[in-house]
Amino acid sequence: MNIHHPSLRRSCLCGALVSAIFLSALPLPASEKYENATPWSYQRIMRPAVPAVKDAAWPKDDIDRFILARLEKDSLHPIGDAPRVTLIRRASFDLRGLPPTQEEVERFVKDAAADDVAFAKVVDAFLLSERFGERWARHWLDVVRYADSVGRVWNAPFLYAARYRDWVIDSLNVDKPYNRFLAEQIAGDLLAAKTVLQRRDQIVGTGMLALGSMNLQEGNYEQHLLDQVDDQIDVVSRAFLGLTLSCARCHDHKTEPVSQKDYYALAGIFYSSRTLTGTPNRNDEARGGYVSAEALVDLPTALDEAVGPPTQLPAGVHSMDDIRTLGNPKETVRYDHDPHFCMGVIEGEIKDCELAVGGDPFDRQAAPDRGVLGLPSLPPLPKIPAKSSGRLELAQWMTQATHPLTSRVAVNRLWQHLFGEGIVRTVDDFGTTGSDPTHPELLDHLAIRFVEGGWSVKKMIRTLMLSRTYRLASTGNPEHPDAGNKLRWRMNPKRLELEPLRDTLLQLAGKLTFERPEGVQVVGTGGKGRHGVTRGLLSPEDPYRTIYLPVVRDNVPELFSTFDFPGPTQIKGQRDVTTVAPQALFFMNNPMVEELSAEIAGESGKDVKAVYRLVLGREPSSEETRDAAELDMQTLVQALLGTAEFRYVF
C-alpha cells in the first residue's frame, strides 16, 4: 500500500491517531464494543414530555420549559431579558449579517405593542429579506468546504462553483424544505421535476459533491477516483449525519460501529456516479487539460433530455490547448460564462466498489452490495435498482422522518448559529468522540418539530428566536454556578465573523452593493500553491458582500485568515474564534479601515451622536460625548470600530 500518498495518509493517520488515543479504553473490536451499547445519536428519536416548571409565567414556548426545568433542577433562574435596542441588533446580525438601520431601531423601540408582538414583526421582516439567504448560505458553505478552485498540487479554477453558491442562497431565501435541500445536493439529477427550470435548478445543487480538493496531477486514475469518493462520503456523512464515516476507508472505524465493508457499500454509490467539475484528472479520457468544458454538466433544455457533458463547447477559453496559444497566461486567461453549464454529479458506469485492503487501490477484495449498511439502530437503505447508482435511495434514506441523525444534526446547527454553540457542541461529530447533548430531550423535541413543520428552516429559526431563551440578556457573572453557561441561563455574546464585519464597514460607509457579480470571477490556469496563476477578480476592497468574493484555495486574502475564515478544504460547522494582535492592528492602521472611517465620518455629518447611532446603534453617554469632542470625526469613528461593542453581538 502506498501509505505516503496524501489522500491515504489522511485516512491512515486518522485511524492511527484515534487508535493510539483510545487503545486502552477500547480493548474490544468495534463490532463487539457496540453489540450491547448503541451510541445515543443512533437511537431513534423519542417524543419527550414537556416538563413542568415552577415559574410558569416565564416561558414563551416549550423550548423555554426545557431550559427552565433544567435550571430549576439546580436552583438556578435565567437572567433578565435584553433591551429592545440590543435585541434588534442581535436579530439583524443573526438573520441578515448586517446591523439594523436607525429607522428600524427607532420603529421597534417605539412600537407600543407587547414585546412578543413587536419582536415577531422584526423577525418576520428580516426572514423575508433577501439578505437572509446571503447570511445563512455562508454557514452552509463552511460545512461543505466551498471554494472557487481545486487547491492541492495544481490549483485550477472551479469556473462554475459560484452557481452552486447562488443556488444555496436562493434555496434558503425561498425556504426550500431541508429534506429537499439535502436530496437535491445528493441526487438532484435523479429527482422528478415539474418544469425544466426546476430540473436545471436541482441539478445545480449536486455541485456540493463536486467541490472537493483533489490532486489533479495524480498519475493513477483509480487512486484519484477513490480519493474523490472518499471526499464525497466525508462531506455527506459529516454535513448531514454528523458522522465521520470516511475514517473506515482503510479499516473498521476505531470508535464508531462502522465497518470497512459499510464504507465500501456506501462508496459504491458514488463510485457509480460521474463527477464533473471542469477540472478533470489527467488520466480522464475527457480531460482536455486542467480546465475543460468537457468535464462539466450541460444542463437540459427539456424535461426528458438526458443529462451529461456538453456535446458542443462554448465560446471562450476552456482548455489547456487553447491557453497554450495565448503565450503568457498569468494575467490574461479569463473565461466566458455559459448559463447552460454547471459543476455537478450524474449517473456513471454502475458497479459496486471493491473493498481496498488498507485503502490500497491495487489490493482489492470482493465488493459489497451498494447501500447495504450494517449500522446499528439505523433503518436500512431502500433497495437500490441494478441500473441505478443509489444516490436517490441514499437521499430517501437520509430524509425519512424516522432517521435519528438528519433532523437532530440540522436543528443543532440552527441552534448553534443563534445561541453561539450547539446543544451538541461538536456540531460536525455526533459520534462517540463527539460531545453529549447538554439538553437531550430539547434536541429531540426540536428535531420532531422540525420534521412536523415541513422541514422549514425559516419556521424553525423563527421559533427559536421568539423563545424567551433567545431574548435573554448576555450579561455575565463569573461567580455564577454555571459560569460557562452550559444550562443557557443567559445569551452568549457572539463575535462578528469576517463577513458581517466587512459588510458592515462597507454599509456604514455607503459603499455596499447588494448586486451579485456577473460572470466567472476567477482567472488563470492553476499552478502550484501560492505561486500558481489562479486568482479571484474581486478583492476585499470591492463593494460586493463578502459571500460573493471568490475563495481561491491556497490563495485566500490575508484579511480572511486574520478573522478566522475557515480553511476552504475543511468541513467546518463551527468556526474557530481567536484573539490575535493582527485583528486589533487591522482597525488601527489598515488603509481600508482608514478610508472607510473617513467615509463613515462624512455619512454622519460630523455629529458625535450621529456617529454613535451609526456605528454602535445607540446614543452616547454625556461622558462619551464630552470625550469625543477632543477627537476629529475620522479618529472617533476608527476608535469606535475597534471596540468590542462594535465587534460583538450581545
What does this structure look like?
The protein is mainly alpha-helical and 650 residues long. Helix content is 40%, strand content 4%. The protein has helices at residues 6-22, 30-33, 62-73, 84-96, 102-110, 115-128, 131-143, 161-173, 178-187, 196-204, 221-241, 260-271, 320-324, 391-398, 406-419, 440-452, 457-465, 498-508, 558-562, 581-589, 591-603, 608-615, 622-628, 633-641, 644-647; strands at 273-276, 297-298, 341-342, 344-347, 355-356, 364-365, 494-495, 522-523, 535-536, 648-649. α11 crosses α12 and α21 (591-603) packs across α24 (633-641). The longest helix has 21 residues, at 221-241. It is globular, with a radius of gyration of 26 Å. The model is unreliable at 1-36 (pLDDT under 50).
Structure class:
mainly alpha
What order do the strands of the largest sheet run in, or round the barrel if closed?
Answer: 1-4
Radius of gyration: 26 Å
Average pLDDT, to the nearest integer?
A: 90
Percent strand equals under 5%
Largest sheet: 2 strands, antiparallel
Counting DSSP E segments of at least 2 residues, the number of strands comes to 10
How much helix is in the residues? 40-55%
Which word captures the global form? globular
Terminal CA distance reads 53 Å
Continuous helix count? 25
Oligomer designation: single chain
Low-confidence runs: 1-36
Question: Can you summarize this structure?
Answer:
The chain has 650 residues and is mainly alpha-helical. It has helices at residues 6-22, 30-33, 62-73, 84-96, 102-110, 115-128, 131-143, 161-173, 178-187, 196-204, 221-241, 260-271, 320-324, 391-398, 406-419, 440-452, 457-465, 498-508, 558-562, 581-589, 591-603, 608-615, 622-628, 633-641, 644-647, and strands at residues 273-276, 297-298, 341-342, 344-347, 355-356, 364-365, 494-495, 522-523, 535-536, 648-649.
